[in-house]
Design a protein that fits this description.
Length: about 625
């Protein structure tokens, strides 16, 4: 964490200083907002936290609930999501508090007595090296808390407006107003009940869940199965002789159905997903009037011969959401894409719903928001043209489509109980580990001129850093102070693009070397994305952040002899930033060049998007391609 750039200050460095742009926390909604977010679930809060990083963007977030979520709902936090939490600065808190999913065990009917269960397998939950972050379990409400804290500490001191239900949303033509979307909310809080407030916004993002009013207002529908199998879920404190109660475990009994065990944070709490009957078409589980006693009894039958004594029920619910998806994630008709710009978006459960069994709902929803967040910021700050916003629906709808297909298969496997081969279930689980960890997402190059994903022409220069996939971190050592860290730690959720320059074998950034020439181009050329897109007076790394990695020992390199771009003067005092240059570690199994298949002979340049996805891999000397790539979607400052 870097601080004191603009002068020494005492106190908590994570509480952002400077002129506070505290938002109206008073009773009424403001009249206007740059971005209006509807819904304080994981999607809405990820987006709000991302936008709160920009002091000049006025964000308003609204929810119909009276206050923050207290308990229940989702709890699985995939490795990829943890990487994103690291970018927001709270992964360490989650790691401290959460349950870590290390192994998953599988149980099936015992061959000695098919009415009893027996362990049939045990697998490592996340394959080695998939991410530097663990797969963890933590209540969704705590994830919300961490985001709310970031928002409250931002310079805008962003806090949600609760107790407001969206009732109307209308978009006027863009020519009529800079704030063309009018949204009305009905207040739910005592003393104001029924009062209508209207706010006008430049952009609206509906993060308002599976029954999204924003989705309905823009005429989109969730298509697919509205419900299939129903599952009960309960967070309970139990006394049991079942040996795997602290492992994630899948139990498939002979005739009593399936239980998924998710151990929870704190060492005692456990979540049990219990299979209920298959529903009839159009039937909702709520109509069955399932009780918690029935749910516990169903779990106890599945656990036999083990006992399950439920001492306390912290939360329970029945859950019957099927696999459904909207055609688009914005307010355009397909025929309008070439002529109109999107202004209203939906994210999370508002555009895709699926079973909770693969633990994807919260994770994918947050990744939607991470995708749209930096794009909205870039457009609102005039760094990118508004047509970049087309890429949100294109990129995320494709991801959701894959998720729906995966979830349909996985849910069917789990729901068919003992009729399914437990070995096949285990195999499927292992095969799709990368997918459920959230690391398999790949954005494809689009034919559009504003495509954010480059072509794979030079992919061979870094075979383990796949274009379109998230930047897969590796350890490095910082030259200036010898600190070992993950290179991924430097990719913060601050809206900046990153140029990661990996030096070739003899390159120490000496004059005339490829790294020195690249830095010279970036510092001096009128074609340089830094020169073109950095506003006058802003720090040199405020739009495009350059970092370099070398192959020598850090003890042999002199940072101060390197190009100025690798220890640039910044801030009002012109202090040098000493955290731009790193070296690979010696040990082969820790070496970023070896781990990520980076050409040791030539090195390469990796372009990373503000949401940590790799946009391009290029030769260090292909400055023309660097310039042309950024020219696609950036505007001159
Ligand atoms: C009751 C419930 C139980 C769940 N259980 C599980 C589970 O066991 N496991 C699992 O993996 N996933 C579960 N999920 C799903 C998981 O919580 C979601 O996938 C995830 O929360 C999606 O995040 P989101 O931000 O898109 O939407 P949500 O978390 O649904 O957030 C939407 C927000 O929008 C607000 N909102 C809705 N309509 C309006 C309106 N008209 N005006 C203003 N605000 C509005 C809501 O109050 C809510 O806060 C559950 C969801 C629910 C609702």
């Amino acid at each position: 964490m870097q601080f004191h750039l603009n002068g020494f200050r005492t106190g908590d460095p994570s509480l952002l200083g400077g002129p506070f742009l505290a938002q109206e926390q008073a009773a009424r909604l403001p009249a206007e907002a740059d971005v209006l977010i509807v819904g304080c679930g994981p999607a809405g809060l990820t987006l709000a936290a991302q936008l709160a990083a920009f002091a000049d963007i006025h964000t308003v977030i609204v929810d119909q609930k009276p206050g923050p979520l207290q308990l229940g709902q989702a709890d699985g936090v995939a490795c990829r999501t943890m990487e994103m939490f690291e970018a927001f600065g709270f992964a360490h808190k989650v790691m401290e508090e959460a349950y870590w999913v290390n192994e998953t065990t599988f149980w099936k009917p015992s061959s000695a007595n098919r009415n009893h269960i027996a362990r049939s397998g045990r697998v490592q939950d996340v394959e080695d090296g998939l991410s530097h972050m663990p797969h963890v379990i933590l209540n969704q409400a705590r994830v919300h808390d961490f985001y709310l804290e970031i928002m409250a500490r931002s310079r805008r001191r962003l806090v949600p407006h609760y107790s407001r239900r969206l009732t109307e949303l209308e978009r006027a033509p863009d020519s009529v107003s800079d704030f063309p979307i009018a949204v009305s909310f009905e207040r739910q809080d005592a003393g104001y009940t029924g009062e209508i407030e209207t706010i006008r916004a430049r952009y609206v993002v509906g993060c308002d869940g599976a029954r999204s009013a924003v989705r309905q207002a823009i005429g989109l529908v969730l298509k697919g199965d509205s419900a299939n199998h129903a599952w009960g879920v309960m967070d309970v404190l139990v006394v049991t002789d079942f040996p795997d109660i602290r492992f994630k475990a899948l139990i498939q009994s002979a005739d009593e159905g399936t239980v998924l065990i998710i151990p929870r944070e704190g060492g005692y709490l456990v979540r049990l997903y219990v299979e209920l009957d298959k529903l009839n078409p159009n039937e909702r589980i709520s109509s069955r009037n399932i009780t918690i006693e029935q749910l516990i009894a169903a779990a106890q039958r599945i656990f036999r011969p083990y006992t399950l004594d439920v001492k306390e029920v912290a939360w329970w619910s029945v859950y019957d959401i099927g696999q459904r998806l909207t055609d688009r994630f914005d307010d355009l008709q397909p025929e309008e894409v070439a002529t109109r710009l999107p202004r209203i978006f939906i994210a999370g459960d508002a555009c895709h719903t699926h079973s909770p069994k693969a633990g994807q709902g919260m994770n994918v929803s947050m990744q939607d928001a991470f995708n749209i967040g930096w794009k909205l910021a870039a457009v609102l700050q005039g760094r990118s043209p508004a047509n970049m916003l087309h890429t949100y629906s294109a990129e995320r709808q494709a991801v959701a489509k894959e998720l729906i297909n995966f979830d349909r298969e996985w849910a069917a496997m789990l729901s068919s109980g003992a009729s399914n081969d437990p070995a096949a279930v285990q195999k499927y689980f292992v095969q799709h580990g990368r997918y459920t960890a959230g690391t398999a997402t790949q954005y494809k190059p689009a034919p559009d001129k504003w495509s954010l994903t480059g072509e794979a022409t030079h992919q061979s220069l870094a075979t383990g850093l796949q274009i379109g996939m998230r930047f897969h971190s590796s350890p490095v050592v910082r030259i200036s102070d010898g600190r070992h860290l993950q290179l991924g730690e430097t990719l913060l959720a601050d809206g900046r693009w990153r140029l990661l320059a990996f030096a070739g074998v003899d390159d120490t950034a000496q004059p005339g070397s490829p790294i020195a020439k690249l830095c010279q181009f970036l510092s001096d050329s009128p074609e340089s994305p830094i020169k073109r897109f950095t506003p006058a007076g802003a720090d040199v790394d405020s739009v495009v952040d350059v970092r370099a990695v070398f192959q020598q020992s850090h003890q042999l390199l002199d940072l101060t002899a390197m190009p100025g771009l690798l220890f640039p003067p910044k801030g009002c005092l012109g202090l040098r930033d000493y955290e731009k240059a790193f070296c690979a570690l010696d040990a082969e199994n820790q070496n970023i060049y070896a781990q990520r298949g980076i050409s040791r002979a030539e090195g390469c340049l990796v372009v990373v998007r503000p949401d940590q996805y790799i946009a391009h891999v290029l030769p260090l000397n292909d400055t023309t391609a660097v310039a042309a790539f950024f020219d696609r979607f950036m505007l001159d400052a």
